[in-house]
Amino acid sequence: MAKIIIIGAGIGGLAFAYKYQGTDEICLFEQAARNKLGFPWCDSVKAEAFKDTEIPLPGKGVYKKKYIHMYSPSCTVNIPQRKKTVKKGYEIDRVALLDHLFELVKDKVTFCFESKVTGLAKSNGKVTGVYVGSALYEADLVIDASGAFSKLRYFVCEDSADFEPNADEILYCERTLYKADENIVKDHLDAVYIKHKGGTALSWCRSTPDLEQMDVFVSSIGAPLTPSYVQAEEEDMFDRNAALSKTVIQKRCERLALRSPLSQFVYDSFAFVGDSAYMTNPVNGCGIENAMRAGAILADVLNKKHDFSLENLWNYQVKFMYSVGSNLVALDVFKRWVYNVVPEDIDWLFDTMIGAEIVAFFSGSSKKPLNPKVLLDKILIAHERKDLAPQMFKVVSRAAQAKTYALLIPAKYEPKLVDLWKTRYNDFLRKGE
Ligand SMILES: Cc1cc2nc3c(=O)[nH]c(=O)nc-3n(C[C@H](O)[C@H](O)[C@H](O)COP(=O)(O)OP(=O)(O)OC[C@H]3O[C@@H](n4cnc5c(N)ncnc54)[C@H](O)[C@@H]3O)c2cc1C
């Protein structure tokens, strides 16, 4: 019987533990106390994540998704989310989701809470265990599922660019739950604002699924939030959202690392799962789904072949790249552009390029095909902004290219081929070559 150590009791680590069918001993180290885990709010998750991974949905804390209206920076235009996306999604209570995953794995995992893994033990390039302070715990396989700010990258990755996220890859956010005005909240339009009030990132004002609270999110990229930044955003939200009262139920600050996906997330006896290997953007809210998928794919590979060598673990990375990773790479290119584009340009895109027909078509509220004249008009309008149109075209083509590179991942672990692929992939993503 082998010993597997999982680092982190998040979605990815627990999804792996649930899907793994081997009879090995599984030990999970979590830095936090059991009652401090999870976020005290609901987050969006696609229904497919549960269907495809065959992880059962929690019995409680699962709600229907509501429409989100995406607002331009000056709030002159808003686009409702696509009907199809809304139908296929849930809002899930994060604490209930974790409780459910714990319940599913409780008989097969030994949990060590308040045990922070501080390092990896290695011998001849192979990971042989973890350190919790000065105590060494040996293992045949170590899975790093410790989230977006994993410090364990230092012990295995060769490229220093992979260690810490750059300043412009950190999203600082504050999420506050306010009491909702019960007389108005039913008619409230859930709003997501892009670069609201000249901000650098996203913010939102949504009602919680039970309609008792308003969920207000403010974020900035590259620099911590300042009181004046938060105040400017919130003042405008109070003006626009009548259901928002000033009674604070709770407030919590978090950070997210929006860094590029690693080019290699498996080594001998070691694998990264979930946000420790990549981080996507909160706009499309697929962090939970991707962590579930990664855990399930890794388990599936090891269920087929009980072999913790780099060669076998590579099959996990290849499968992940095909099903999820290549899209994350394309998104990475796109999101960097969005973060850098000035609010005035986003306003121009919303105000002139996106009209009623386009909104109706993409949101699914009209089944009519787009009138070719509308499209022709848009091409002519795009021509007015000679700087922006080629920029957008370049981004779309770079995103497609990035996806193509990602999909060229060698199907088998051949060191020379893998090194060549990694170099080209990293040059493309990080240096833009
Ligand atoms: C404000 C906010 C809003 C979000 N909204 C959404 C959304 O709507 N939809 C969505 O899909 N995703 C959303 N996400 C992202 C989502 O939470 C993550 O993508 C997902 O939780 C990743 O799962 P994970 O298992 O990789 O890591 P995590 O869930 O981060 O779990 C990592 C665990 O490892 C532990 N840990 C860290 N270091 C160590 C160590 N050294 N030793 C031991 N334990 C350690 C941590 O305490 C933690 O419990 C949001 C995140 C935030 C912060």
* Lateral arrangement of strands in the main beta sheet: 6-5-14-15-16-13-17
Assembly state: single chain
Gyration radius, rounded: 23 Å
Low-confidence runs: none
CATH arch. level architecture of the largest domain: 3-Layer(bba) Sandwich
Q: Number of domains in the coordinates?
A: 2
Got a strand count? 19
Spatial shape: globular
Beta content: 15-25%
Structural class: alpha/beta
Q: What is the overall pLDDT average? A: 90
- Percent helix: 25-40%
CATH homologous group name of the largest domain: FAD/NAD(P)-binding domain
Count of helical stretches: 13
> How far apart lie the N and C ends?
47 Å
Q: Indicate the CATH class of the largest domain.
A: Alpha Beta
List the topology elements.
Blueprint: E1 3-7, H1 11-19, E2 25-29, E3 42-46, H2 47-53, E4 62-64, E5 68-71, E6 78-80, H3 83-87, E7 89-93, H4 94-105, E8 109-112, E9 119-123, E10 126-132, E11 135-138, E12 141-144, H5 153-156, E13 170-180, E14 190-194, E15 202-207, E16 213-221, H6 227-240, E17 244-257, E18 266-267, E19 270-272, H7 287-304, H8 310-340, H9 343-353, H10 356-363, H11 372-384, H12 388-407, H13 415-431
Parallel strand pairs: 1-2, 1-12, 2-8, 5-14, 12-19
Antiparallel strand pairs: 3-7, 4-7, 5-6, 9-10, 10-11, 13-16, 13-17, 14-15, 15-16, 18-19
Flavin-adenine dinucleotide (FAD) binds at residues 7-13, 29-32, 37, 43-45, 116-117, 145-147, 173, 175, 254, 256, 274-275, 282, 285-289, 291.
